[in-house]
Design brief:
This protein has two domains: 112 residues, HAD superfamily/HAD-like (Rossmann fold, 3-Layer(aba) Sandwich), CATH 3.40.50.1000; 110 residues, Rossmann fold. It is 34% helix and 20% strand. 47% of the residues are buried. It is built from nine helices and 15 strands. The chain has a six-stranded parallel sheet. The chain is of the alpha/beta class and 266 residues long. α8 links the parallel β13 and β14. The longest helix has 13 residues.
Length: 266
């Protein structure tokens, strides 16, 4: 299934490609994902793999994709954890952060040289940074709540309520963020797609050209496309299993179908 709208030659194409639900579900590669990335590489079309998932490091994503036959460099990947660290580093050169999340967030804040607090040190936090956490405990929520109420800045890597796994949709970072918002009465500052910090980092890494956003979420990926003034490609292999034709310029079952479609865009 594919729908065509504005199709004019576009020699300066740049692709912004989501990963969860687009290239894979959990640890299972989505049909055609390796062919699609290989096609872009063979045609020298610049691309950036851009995920809201903050659980893994960029190096770990390179390894995961390699196991699926997809070869990319770390510099071709951004995560919401990477965006969060890059933006906050500009605001405060040396900070103290309480993290509710997984390895991806911890490693990004180690990279920028911030002190990562234990949950017992919540009183010292300048920021509370929240992302997906599959080992979430009441102790972590309690520490985050106390730190925010004491005045720490409340930042979310992303607020996706759920994300696609091999078993189906499971709770995402947004579910944890919502719990802390309810407990504190404070709204988190969100760094992930489709928010301005993420847009800023994309433009910094992959400047200029005609952007095409490939994603499986209307409320994040297609809105990100609006902010980038980009064309929209919605895949139905992830969160969105059905969609009205007016939500995107192209709608495909999976990214493998784009190998046949993209040449017609030049």
């Amino acid at each position: 299934m594919h729908s065509f709208y504005v199709m004019r030659p576009c020699p300066s194409m740049r692709f912004i490609i989501d990963m969860d639900g687009v290239l894979y579900r959990g640890n299972r590669k989505i049909e055609g994902a390796d062919r699609f990335i290989s096609f872009l590489q063979d045609q020298n079309i610049p691309f950036l793999l851009a995920t809201n998932n903050s659980t893994k490091t960029r190096k770990r994503y390179v390894e995961k994709l390699s196991g699926m036959g997809i070869s990319v460099k770390k510099e071709q990947i951004i995560t919401s954890a990477y965006v969060t660290a890059e933006i906050l580093k500009r605001e405060k050169r040396e900070g103290k952060v309480l993290i509710i999340g997984e390895t991806g967030i911890f490693e990004e804040f180690r990279r920028i040289g911030w002190r990562i607090l234990s949950y017992g040190e919540w009183k010292d936090a300048d920021y509370v940074v929240v992302g997906m956490d599959t080992t979430l405990t009441y102790e972590k929520l309690k520490a985050g709540c106390l730190a925010i109420n004491k005045g720490a800045k409340f930042v979310a890597t992303n607020d996706d309520r759920n994300f696609p796994s091999e078993e189906g949709l499971i709770p995402g970072a947004g579910s944890i963020v919502a719990a802390l918002e309810a407990a504190t009465g404070r709204k988190a500052r969100v760094m992930g797609k489709p928010n301005d910090p993420y847009v800023e980092i994309i433009r910094k890494i992959l400047p200029g050209g005609d952007y095409w956003v490939v994603g499986d979420r209307v409320e994040t990926d297609m809105l990100l496309a609006d902010k980038l003034n980009a064309k929209k490609i919605l895949v139905l292999s992830g969160v969105s299993s059905d969609a009205k034709e007016d939500v995107a310029d192209i709608i495909v079952k999976n990214v493998g179908e784009l190998v046949e479609i993209i040449p017609s865009l030049f």
